[in-house]
Design goal:
It is a single chain. The protein is built from 1 helix and 13 strands; from the N terminus they run βββββββββββββα. With 206 residues, the chain is of the alpha+beta class.
Length: 206
Amino acid sequence: MPLLAPRRRSGALWPVAAVEVHTSREVEALNGTNVRLKCTFSSSSPVSQRVTVTWNFRPQGMKSPESVLYYYEEPYPPTSGRFKERVTWDGNIDRNDASIVVWNLNPTDNGTFTCQVKNPPDVDGTIGEIQLRVVQQVHFSEIHILALVIGSACALMIIVVIMVVVWRHYRNRRGQEKNTEMVETELTEKEKLKSTEEKVAVRLED
């Protein structure tokens, strides 16, 4: 539910609607890859064409932020600085999405990214923060390990099912071959018996 912040006007308090911004608190990405920084928002007012999105970056150990991207009717990526030609807009204002993609990560991108959305008259509200960690090797979380275990179990079950199907097919085929051999053997025995009977009958006639 959007927050309501009081604003004093002419000696009275008037409720002012605020925009709520939602982001992941921490994101870990591999050095040299690309990462999508997700930022969504909710507003008590209908989303208009006057929406503005401001992305900033604060490096580790630094207090002053750097501009990453500004959006007003269209995205305005930085023309200088560390994020020049490395940031693209990946959001959709109509769907309350203000996400971006940062390309070709490197260790200097470690720090805090902030996403601020204003949707007049909703101009106050929370600012989303994402702590980005660029690592040389991705560390598996409990969720990743659980997904890996479940995926391995599913793959093993599929292999077992395939082996059972193949074995049943092979067994049925062998059974059919044995039945065919038995029928051919019976026919051969009958033919031999018939031939023997005919020979005996001829001798008796002689």
